[in-house]
Request: fold
Amino acid sequence: METIAPLSPFWTGDPATDLEETRVLARAVGGADPADPWLIYTTGAGRIPVVTPTALDPERPATIAVWRTPWPYLPADIWMRRPGEYAASYQCRMTLTLAAMGLIEADGQHAPWTADMGEADEAAAQSLTAGRFGTAQSEEWETRRDRIAQLAAQTWPDGYPIDDLLAACIEMSAVVRAGSAVMSAHAALTDQANGDPKRAVATLQAAKRLYPDLFDPQGMDPRSVAIWVREHADRATGMFEWLAAAGLAGQEDAAAVKEVLQ
Reply:
């Protein structure tokens, strides 16, 4: 049995890995709870967990790892979550933003992740922290901050299109979460059929956690999940068609998912 590997940042079929990577990032910002939407989280609306500005407050110790991500250097007007912006649409907006700026590494061969901003040892992390919070001048902080600011200016010479993105991501988040729930359940069926029941169970448990409003089979056994996938396959095909229309997936992906889910 085959499925489609979730190698795009814009949808997921591997919620267990997404939750684990969220935990890794949480540890990088001082052990923040990955379920706390004010700190760091994933909603299943893509592969890239969101690190919020609050997660990098001065009183929250950040490890070296977080300074290698683009998050601390994003301009405030881009990074901040707007009033009334849903968690899932915020995740979509930040994914689209990072991708447009070339700050997501997605080669179609490996799972996507944020671009590496460069090495940072303990001394560099202390310098970056001081620069970010204005307690001391830091050339390294200014270099990385200015690099991101320049990328933003080049990407949106007329200014960051916040209103357009807010509107688009409300629709995108709903479409992507619905389709990703189906692809996650299908991935679990694939793992079960291919002799990896442990991974199948982990995927189903993660899907239940990320999509409590969407993933509701009669049972968690393979037959019940397979019935649910068949009944909701149009959500997955609709997701790929939406992404293809937006230039975020290929038409071949939309065609392939129809064959896979038959």
Remarks:
- The beta strands are 40-41, 50-51, 104-105, 113-114.
- Residues 1-262 form one domain.
- The mean pLDDT is 92.
